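Example complex used in Figure S2.
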Amino acid sequence: MAQAAAETTASRPLRPWLSPLNQRRLQNFRANRRGYWSLWIFLLLFVLSLFSELIANDKPIIASYKGEILFPVLVAYPEEKFGGFYAVTDYRDPVIQDEINANGWMIWPPVRYSYQTVNNAIPEAAPAKPSWLYDKKARCSQYPQGAADPNCNIGNWNWLGTDDQARDVLARVLYGFRISVLFGLILTLGSSLIGVAAGAVQGYFGGWTDLLFQRFIEIWSAIPVLYLLLIISAILPPGFFILLGLMLLFSWVALVGVVRAEFLRARNFEYVNAARALGVPNLTIMFRHLLPNAMVATLTFLPFLLSGSISTLTSLDYLGFGLPPGSASLGELLKQAQRNLNAPWLGISGFIVISLMLSLLVFIGEATRDAFDPRKTFR
Amino acid sequence: MSEPLLSVRDLSVAFAQGGNQSMAVDHISFDIAKGATLALVGESGSGKSVSALSVLKLLPYPAASHPSGKILFHGSNLLAMGEKALRGVRGNKITMIFQEPMTSLNPLHTIEQQIVEVLKLHQGLGDRQARARTLELLNEVGIREPEKRLDAYPHQLSGGQRQRVMIAMALANEPELLIADEPTTALDVTVQAQILELLAGLKSRKGMSMLFITHDLGIVRKIADRVCVMTKGRIVETGPTQEIFANPQHAYTKHLLAAEPKGKPPAANAAAKAVMTGKEIKVWFPIKRGFFRRTVDHVKAVDGIDVTVRAGQTLGVVGESGSGKTTLGLALARMISSRGAINFNGRDINQLSFSAMRPLRRELQIVFQDPFGSLSPRMSVAEIIEEGLKIHEPKLSPDERDDKVVDVLKEVGLDPETRHRYPHEFSGGQRQRVAIARAMVLNPRFVMLDEPTSALDMSVQAQVVDLLRNLQARHNLAYLFISHDLKVIRALANDVIVMRNGQIVEAGPSEQIFSSPQTDYTRALMAAAFKIETAPSGVVSE
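Predicted assembly (921 residues):
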């Protein structure tokens, strides 16, 4: 019995998890060293930024207070717990720090600022230079105990300086990177879902469906998005999801063209006709036989859509119509840089982060496009 | 013997593919004397086209490379020639015509523009001279009323006319060598006969040499002086045409020569149950004109045809391309809408909706012409075959489905172990077997076969014909067999209808039609198919 079972499993070999075609594509993608490394660097940065709270925060990661293990990053403990009376604990307050250190210990993140934390001990008027540009005396001049102050340590350095509200630029860049990439990813995902569905329906059914839809898209994409955003931001409070929804309303159009063309081309393929002759329903044909054709074009477009969405968000923030004031945003950093030309660290940090992020995405996109190109040969 | 015009010595062609080299052509040598025709014969994948393309260095370099050999044309090595010197030879001394005349002409330019371009480029003629020469060339290749055709676009011409234009372009510079890469494969048999006659005539009039590439031995016998038989990148036999046909030495040549569809169709049986009958089938496509797109006329693709297909019998539908035979088949299978009564299994199905048709689809299957196009490249063979089962027998467990797939693959003569592979790993014949298996797994009663053998090599055609005949006998299937190839029809069909312009020209038992055809049209089709001879003008299309 067991033998028979073993035989049947042997005669039904497992399929490799990737089809030969996709294996070849993966190989081609790897062959493009620049794109391949860009992907890893980007993934590393993105995963790191997802854990920004553990890297740059104004709360300790773990603290032990009177024998109790606390997680201030995850749980908001009232100050009462440490003998104070505020509803929210300010762990940067020397009094609280002394209290906790006297009754236990605490582990700080490498950077002791969140994106909204104001550094009250900057050596000169905001925007302050990166801490490593001051000597120890100047750096600690504003702390109560001067150079001997326990808080004048490397964790409280402003590695990239502060902005004009004395907030740490490194923390803001880190959080800003995360929100930009997340915004881009969600927007890209949403717009490709809608775009592919719309393109598929148009291409597959053709005729009047196609004609009417196409005219609608032409009118729709003629609406000036920026003005609309200006008007809407006057009515609705600007926020992450409102902005996302507004952008989504217009960005789905980008993919319709390619997907529609692929479906139009492929719907008369003989294997599609063969599937019709087998009695396969329309929806199944679209998913199983036509969508894989369109996926190549879609996947090729996605990284560029992603970088496009990110730069749109950045420019909206720069113009002041983006995320609400106070949020960590790269566009806002650029705006500050433009207002404070005497503080070049603002502009340089913003420029490097944005250009690094966009270049990485474009390199990845380029490698993806080449990997899916059947005519491309690599040696 | 005088110095040969073209002399290929020890030529090899290798393709780099993901790091490893595959040899497409392996140390071949042949000569073409002045004024002679050499045929390279072989099945697809034998390397015959690659050899021909390397003569003009038209391969995708650097993916392709020549590890060895030289190609001497008038004593100078073409492979060592620079790109500039080569351009002087290409299209000038050596020209080429390709298989697919639709795609080798630019669809956006008129015939005149395309021929004049060649003349101006290579001979530096002025506008008026070039136009005169174009007319002369079109006359030469037998295009009637060339003045009217000058402004035509490629899509306005028939396949045969397009191939004639291609030949005119190839002749424009009075080449010494014409390379013809399967110039008639995409054409009807009747048109094929016309084109071959034209090529043979031009060759003798102009004293050109010709390198003719084909898989069809019938054509070789007709046109070539010498033959090289190629298989797997090697030339296995070479010699004068007569000798090769009379006394083939190599096993592969014998195999090719023996590869004709053979055997007899099932005996006609008028008492067998009629599975599919069509009465007065009409498929008219409206021609719309004007601002309001009013229908002014119709293209009558199928115009009032009666058919009856009986269980265990085959109805052959023959006719040149554009005669409406495929449209008729598609109408009967309800893939396109038509007027008239279609009675399947005693039920009128022409009024049924798409969803009402779905349960019937199982008994009414189609096998398409092109096994490369009809199998989805992204699905494994098992997935392709079980797709229909999933719809029509949704209750089957995956294992039961798999068993059915294995059974049907055995039945069509494929190794069931290969079912997890993808279509591109199979040859054309094997793919067509997969397409047949996909239809057969549903146990149909009626199968429409739309030129299932046209895209296949000769020897594979014979095998597919045998397979179809066996399946028919075993399952008592009713076939509607559409083909322009009368050899295949003769081997399979017991009843034949001959179609032209959407109407029946002749119908009856196949023996009667083959032994005593009544109309000129049928006779012309048969002469073209069996003897590769042309008919007097006007009987068939160009």
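Residues 189-206 of chain B form the longest helix (18 residues). The interface with chain A takes residues 16, 18-19, 63, 333, 335, 357-359, 361-362, 365-366, 368-370, 373-380, 387-388, 391-392, 402, 417, 420, 422, 435, 438, 442 of chain B (CB under 8 Å).
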